[in-house]
Automatic annotation (TrEMBL):
GO molecular function: serine-type endopeptidase activity
SMART domains linked: Tryp_SPc
One example of a Gene Ontology biological process annotation: proteolysis
Record key words, sorted: Disulfide bond, Hydrolase, Protease, Serine protease, Signal
Lineage: Eukaryota, Metazoa, Chordata, Craniata, Vertebrata
Gene source species: Falco tinnunculus
Residue ranges of every copy of the Peptidase S1 domain listed in the record: 26-257
UniProt xrefs under InterPro entries: Peptidase_S1_PA (IPR009003), Peptidase_S1_PA_chymotrypsin (IPR043504), Peptidase_S1A (IPR001314), Trypsin_dom (IPR001254), TRYPSIN_HIS (IPR018114), TRYPSIN_SER (IPR033116)
SUPFAM superfamilies: Trypsin-like serine proteases
UniProt protein name: Peptidase S1 domain-containing protein
Origin: domain of life: Eukaryota
PANTHER family listed in its UniProt record: ACROSIN-RELATED, SUPPRESSOR OF TUMORIGENICITY 14 PROTEIN HOMOLOG-RELATED
Length: 258
């Protein structure tokens, strides 16, 4: 820690956004992503309809949110697609196994993590490959920038875009996030808040299960969070809440060997 290249990240993202004409995305986000920008991002589809995001952590495993599978945990009906466009995807895989955290209890948001095993391995390319997982002991400083990506709604209850959206958010410390006017004590040690207390930029419905990532000093990208919940989208004092990946690092190893 310490050497996170916030400045570099902001530079990369602002150059990216200047290179395109930016408009309103992922709820106040930067812009549409391009093929290969976020190569670990997957779309999880139920009966071929996008439901949630997921992140590639090996050739055969994705990590996502447990709530994506409530009363829909039948692997046969799920597929995962890769590539920045939902239609046409650049790669599609069927799902072999879904592992929901044993302590997850709908409608609570605690332990909101699931693992999805693909029926056939994905060969990594420059545009489809895994993200790095942080060590359990890793602590990410508050206020650093991180990126969220997904095909979720562009406004609360809005439509699903075909192109992957990206936005920059800041990590918010749990004491602040647990304040009365924010989430009033609802943030557990399994959760992490990110976004802006002034509102405006956030993940939204359909982004769930997708990644919150931050680069290290070598520009290797680490999965910090999994889109989990929020009070609507992008409202002041209601930042996005993410599953804290470091808390589950050993659980991931116990289930996948990764
Ligand atoms: N639970 C939502 C979903 O199923 C995503 C919630 C994220 N909301 C937010 N405001 N950050 O897609």
């Amino acid at each position: 820690a310490g050497g996170r290249y916030d400045f570099l990240l902001m530079l990369i993202l602002s150059v990216k956004s200047m290179a395109k004409s930016s408009s309103l995305r992922i709820v106040g986000g930067l812009s549409s992503a391009e093929t290969g920008d976020w190569p670990w991002q997957a779309s999880l589809q139920y009966n071929n309809v996008h439901r949630c995001g997921a992140t590639l952590i090996s050739n055969t495993w994705l990590v996502s949110a447990a709530h994506c599978f409530r009363d829909m945990s039948h692997p046969q009906k799920w597929t995962a697609t890769f590539g920045a466009l939902l239609k046409p995807p650049s790669l599609k895989r069927s799902v072999k196994t879904i592992i929901i955290h044993e302590k997850y209890r709908y409608p609570e948001h605690d332990y909101d993590i699931a693992l999805v095993q693909l029926s056939k391995r994905v060969e990594f390319t420059s545009s489809i490959h895994r993200v790095c997982l942080p060590e359990p002991s890793e602590t990410f400083p508050y206020n650093i920038y991180a990126v969220i990506t997904g095909w979720g709604a562009l406004t609360n209850d809005g439509p699903t875009p075909n192109a992957l959206q990206e936005a920059t958010v800041k990590l918010i410390d749990s004491n602040t996030c647990n304040k009365k006017e924010v989430y009033d004590g609802d943030i557990t040690p399994r959760m992490l808040c990110a976004g802006y207390l002034e509102g405006g930029v956030d993940a939204c419905q359909g982004d769930s299960g997708g990644p919150l990532v931050t680069p290290d000093s070598r520009l290797m990208w680490y999965l910090v969070g999994i889109v989990s919940w929020g009070d609507e989208c992008a409202k002041p004092n209601k930042p996005g809440v993410y599953t804290r990946v470091t808390y589950f690092r050993d659980w991931i190893t116990s289930k996948t060997g990764i």
